[in-house]
Amino acid sequence: MPTSPAPTTTRGAGSGGRRPILLDVAFLRLWTGATASGLATWALPFVLGLAVLDRTLGATDLGLLLAARTIGFLAAVPVAGVLADRHSRRKVVLWAGLASGAAAPVLAAGLGRSVPLMAAAAAVAGAGQGACRPAYQALTAEVVDAGRRQQANAAMTLAVRVTTLVGPSLAALLAVFLDTAALLVGIGLLWLVAAFVPGRGARPGVTGGAGGAGRAKDAPGTSFLADFGEGVREARRHPWFIAGLGALTAVIATGYSATGVALPLVSRDEYGTEVVLAGAMTAYTAGALAGALLIARWRPRSPGRAALAGLAAYGFAPLSLVLPVHPAVVMAAYAVAGVGIELFNVPWFTAAQREVAPDRLARVSSLDFLLSYGLAPLGLALIAPAIEAFGAAPVLVACAFTCFAAPAAAALVPSSRGFSHRPAAEPAEARATGATR
């Protein structure tokens, strides 16, 4: 199998040595922009939910807006992957942030007046969110040297978890002083931060391709489908990526969906309180925070298999809902699932940045987001009818089994041991940092 070239060291990437990653100005700017985009992405459905509470929106309207956002997201992800590899990743982030930022005041203007206008704006906002994802992934590889990318990816995901944990309280506090329209405009301001704060990537107009060949980003005569197909072929060159993506998609389509549908039902019907729902989701976020902190420093001997084991841990979440156990058991299971998901996420992103040809990284990342996020709505749509037809317990057991079995099957692929096709057991990043186990 041909070997992908190592991503090029970028301006300022190696200057920081082993100092904390957030002291690197280039990464700090990128991190700030990504954090702002993550907070804006999380805030939109929450703020629209507040509009339902004050009866400015109906529940059906909310579902339509969220569906429009999801459609925009999924439509933009593959397009952004191609554009981010063909042109400047920084420009993709800029225009994506501007699109979402412009959509926010349109949402505010349509509130209580025109649901179709709001749906169109929600689709644009979702497209901006989708376009940012692969571009930010590729920019991280440009801004951060290989030896510190695991630490950088942990910092990225840590920011997302912190905003998820404190965001509801902050939004509820702001809602005391501001109406929903003002909060939507505030989301637009967050997108402007995401658009303008990150610095330029360090790569010039020609990027290294597979085998070291350069290709101009503005290469004429290539179609979108041809470019995206090139990204798919690059993904297929990495069996560990295909196996891991299959496992991730299965876990999200079953485990996440079971959580989204069954947890509220079990909390209401079995425990008679919303405390279990709130406690489980808080425990999951707290566990994810702990997992991000752990994986920022930990270098397991078999990083790929350790990551897949972490992904499999999500199976404990639906499994905890099968039998009437103490609420603390449910919360503990969700905390374990949270730890596990970050033990997977961070090495997964880091491996893609290390192994994938640099000029195809955004397209491969877009394939990741397209499949893992794209099939989630299908899982959500099927879980509720399945529970009605077969009962909650059999469906939850099937979801838990899938969460355990899919990563286990992926771990059987030889290159999954280190998320690398390299024969050496020790990954490149551990050698670069001198990390010990």
3D structure, described in words:
The chain is an all-alpha fold and 437 residues long. The longest helix is centred in the middle third of the chain and has 31 residues, at 239-269. It is built from 16 helices and two strands. The chain has helices at residues 25-53, 59-86, 89-110, 115-143, 149-177, 180-196, 224-236, 239-269, 275-295, 303-312, 316-319, 327-355, 361-374, 376-390, 392-411, 428-433; strands at residues 206-208, 214-216. A hairpin with a 5-residue loop joins β1 and β2 (214-216). The protein has a two-stranded antiparallel sheet. The two termini are 29 Å apart. Helix content is 73%, strand content 1%.
Task: Please outline what is shown here.
The chain is 73% helix and 1% strand.
Low-confidence stretches: 1-17, 203-220, 424-437
Query: How large is the count of helical segments?
Result: 16
Quote the beta fraction.
Answer: under 5%
So what's the overall shape?
globular
Alpha-beta content class? mainly alpha
Sheet with most strands: strand arrangement: 1-2
Q: What's the gyration radius in Å?
A: 21 Å
Main sheet properties: 2 strands, antiparallel
Helix content bin? over 70%
Overall pLDDT:
82
End-to-end Cα distance: 29 Å
Helix-strand layout with pairing:
Blueprint lengths: L24 H29 L5 H28 L2 H22 L4 H29 L5 H29 L2 H17 L9 E3 L5 E3 L7 H13 L2 H31 L5 H21 L7 H10 L3 H4 L7 H29 L5 H14 L1 H15 L1 H20 L16 H6 L4
Antiparallel strand pairs: 1-2
Helix pairs in contact: 1-4, 1-5, 1-6, 2-3, 2-4, 2-7, 2-13, 3-4, 3-6, 4-13, 5-9, 5-12, 7-13, 8-10, 8-13, 8-14, 8-15, 9-12, 10-12, 10-15, 14-15
